[in-house]
Design goal:
With 670 residues, this protein is of the alpha+beta class. The chain is built from 10 helices and 25 strands. The strands form 5 sheets. Strands 1, 2, 3, 4, 7, 9, 10 and 13 form an 8-stranded mixed beta sheet that branches. A 5-stranded antiparallel beta sheet has the order 8-6-5-11-12, with no helix packed on it. A hairpin with a 2-residue loop joins β9 and β10. α6 runs parallel beside α10 (621-631) and α8 packs antiparallel against α10 (621-631).
């Protein structure tokens, strides 16, 4: 299977699994968001509960209080309930389902809607003076002077009602005319009648006490009150308190509310005392009710905080509830609710974005991988072709090594550079092998020709010349021996170095002694040492170091002009290296010669040097020296040097062989 095909298969599997991981990731995000929202709402409920501890007087309430809803629209008194649609399910049934009552208010009026069950409605007959001779509704309230007022609401048929103020026996009016300030409408229904009315709010201030009673008259003939059903017990003289949602509590918690959350404050009887915020919520637990669910707040009103999730109309509502204390007494609770619509909407949007992003990413990655795999395949094929083109049918390198990917920093670039190094080494080795026949032919033919001539002379000349010819033949044999020895040394140097031991060497002392001994050996030459004289340590093999110095010294002697000095110099380089320089004066080398000096079987000689003509020059000396330097983790360099002519002094030039060795700190030897 091709590399590009494998990349496409594995990447496709990953991209297919990406949406599945995204779905689970979104689910985890949802749970995390819901949990975070629960914690936030719990903290908000706790903060509001703490704030409300200073406003406990606002929680005074009576279990039998009549709850008044805030008006959400204009109420028209016509006996129909179209204006009450938002509250139509919130009637508080009283007296065994005989009637139900719903109250709301605005700035001027208190509105009441009564729904009464009556199988036989008895309307008022003008012939009867007593006001309790027909079915009617009684209304009681306290004015600002704590004076009780009693009103009778009745009618002679469907339509607008008549309202009279009466005495305590509810039979006769105090004034002959009815009250215009109270306006109502009576409408028959299938099981009784509905009564819609209004009265001024200011009548009830500041006591806010009101009671309603529904009176049923027995029949048309007797017209005596049969049953009376009231919002208060008959044995209780006090009127029902009127309970409004508290504007003061709204003002207290106004700054703690937000559009997304609905804050609901209830009293000990579960009646809603304040509702604020939550304008964006589609559902609510206390927006259009007078009491919240007992199961929802039973634990809270016992002093235990709660955080729960309620599913309502297909939405999950998170509710955090916290009790409100007055000292040790629980007087109410704070409910902070928020639906999950926004969270889930955000989740759905995120999931949709993930899907679209995944599809786009899939095609983008697919296209990128296709391009990348094609490009990768192209580069591999190009590397294969370029590598193959460097070799002929017999396996010989026929061109210089030049691969296209050596400048890239990726794996193929590393492979190309490795190929380049390998092929370059093979190329140099091939050149070495190609130069061996011609070099050996040149070096071996000289002693062979000498031997041949000497043997011919021995056969032809007189006996007195025989010894001289034999000496020449022996010299030629020695040359052949030196050639074989040099070749053997070059061939076995790498194997020999593997078995050499290393130790700590004072290279300064070794070099001083080496220069002294070499001067004694080569009396015709001028050798001089310059630099540090002791305590310069390296790790190495002293025999191999001397062998390296011999190769460099011989090379310097071969290239030096007669009468010039060969300088051995030792310095500390960059604080952690030893710099050993062997400088001679003579001809400089071309760039091509400098590049090939460490290649075997390459030699550059001049007739003007001090070279011994009887010594074969195979070009192996610096090759062996470089191998020894590499064994010591050193760097061997060859450079030309030249001085500028000044003060009538001639310009000097030559070659400098530099060896950089790692130095050992003397303190580590103690």
């Amino acid at each position: 299977m091709k590399l590009g095909t494998r990349l496409l298969i594995f990447s496709s599997i990953f991209l297919v699994l990406l949406p599945w991981f995204g779905f689970h990731f979104i689910t985890k995000i949802e749970q995390s968001l819901l949990q975070g929202q629960e914690e936030a709402q719990s903290m908000t409920a706790s903060a509001i509960s703490t704030v409300l501890r200073g406003y406990t007087r606002l929680f005074d309430a009576d279990e039998h209080a009549l709850y008044v809803y805030p008006a959400h629209q204009v109420i028209t008194i016509d006996g129909y309930d179209e204006d009450w649609t938002q509250l139509k399910d919130q009637f508080s049934f009283q007296a065994a389902n005989v009637f139900s009552l719903l109250l709301t208010n605005d700035a001027q009026y208190l509105y009441a809607y009564l729904r009464v069950k009556d199988d036989n409605i008895v309307y008022r007959n003008p012939r009867y003076i007593a006001l309790d001779s027909s079915d009617h509704v009684r209304l009681e309230y306290l004015d600002e002077n704590n004076k009780r007022h009693r009103l009778v609401l009745l009618t002679e048929g469907q339509g607008n009602i008549s309202v009279y103020e009466v005495d305590s026996n509810w039979r006769l009016w105090k004034r002959g005319n009815h009250l215009n300030a109270v306006f109502g409408n009576w409408r028959e229904t299938s099981d009784g009648y509905d009564l819609e009315l209004r009265l001024p709010v200011k009548w009830l201030e500041p006591n806010r006490r009101l009671s309603l009673s529904v009176v049923n008259v027995f029949n048309e003939n007797q017209r005596k009150p049969d049953t009376v059903h009231a919002t208060r017990n008959h044995d209780v003289e006090s009127l029902n308190p009127i309970l409004y949602q508290s504007q003061e509590i709204n003002n207290v918690i106004q700054n703690l509310s937000e559009l997304e959350s609905r804050i609901c404050v209830i009293d000990i009887f579960r009646r809603v005392r304040s509702v604020i915020g939550g304008n964006l919520m589609s559902t609510s637990l206390c927006q259009a009710i007078d009491k919240v669910s007992e199961s929802l707040v039973s634990e809270v009103l016992q002093g235990n905080k709660q955080v729960t999730r309620i599913e309502q109309q297909g939405e999950i509502i998170i509710v955090a509830a916290y009790p409100v204390f007055d000292g040790e007494e629980i007087i109410g609770a704070v409910l902070v609710s928020k639906d999950s619509q926004q969270i889930l909407s955000l989740q759905r949007e995120t999931l949709r974005d993930v899907v679209f992003a995944t599809i786009g990413l899939f095609f983008l990655v697919f296209l990128s991988l296709l391009i990348f795999s094609s490009w990768l395949t192209f580069r591999i094929n190009r590397l294969t072709k370029q590598t193959a083109s460097l070799l002929d049918d017999s396996g010989r390198i026929i061109t210089s090594v030049e691969l296209s990917d050596v400048r890239h920093g990726d794996a193929i670039g590393d492979l190309s550079r490795s190929f380049t190094v390998l092929l370059d080494s093979l190329h140099r080795y091939t050149q070495f092998l190609e130069t061996v026949p011609s070099m050996l032919r040149h070096e071996i033919l000289n002693p062979v020709n000498t031997l041949s001539m000497s043997l011919q002379k021995i056969q032809t000349v007189s006996p007195e010349h025989t010894l001289s010819d034999i000496a020449v033949a022996n010299s030629a044999i020695k040359q052949l021996q030196m050639i074989v020895s040099s070749l053997t040394e070059a061939a076995n140097i790498d194997q020999a170095l593997k078995h050499d031991d290393v130790e700590t060497i004072d290279i300064a002392a070794l070099l001083i002694e080496y220069v002294r001994n070499s001067q004694a050996k080569h009396r015709h030459a001028k050798l001089r040492y310059q630099g540090v004289e002791k305590h310069v340590y390296i790790q190495g093999n002293d025999i191999r170091i001397v062998q390296l110095l011999d190769k460099v010294k011989d090379n310097a002697l071969d290239f030096s002009l007669s009468g010039t000095t060969i300088l051995f110099q030792l310095d500390i380089f960059q604080g952690d290296k030893v710099r050993l320089s062997v400088k001679n004066e003579g001809e400089i080398l071309s760039q091509q010669q400098l590049a090939n000096q460490f290649t075997g079987m390459v030699s550059s000689r001049s007739v003007n040097t001090t070279s011994d003509e009887n010594v074969p020059h195979l070009g192996i000396g610096l090759f062996v020296a470089n191998r020894i330097a590499q064994f010591h983790q050193a760097v061997l360099q060859i450079k030309n040097w030249q001085t500028v002519a000044t003060n009538h002094l001639e310009c000097k030039q030559g070659v400098d062989v530099i060896l950089l060795l790692p130095m050992i700190n003397a303190s580590t030897l103690e």
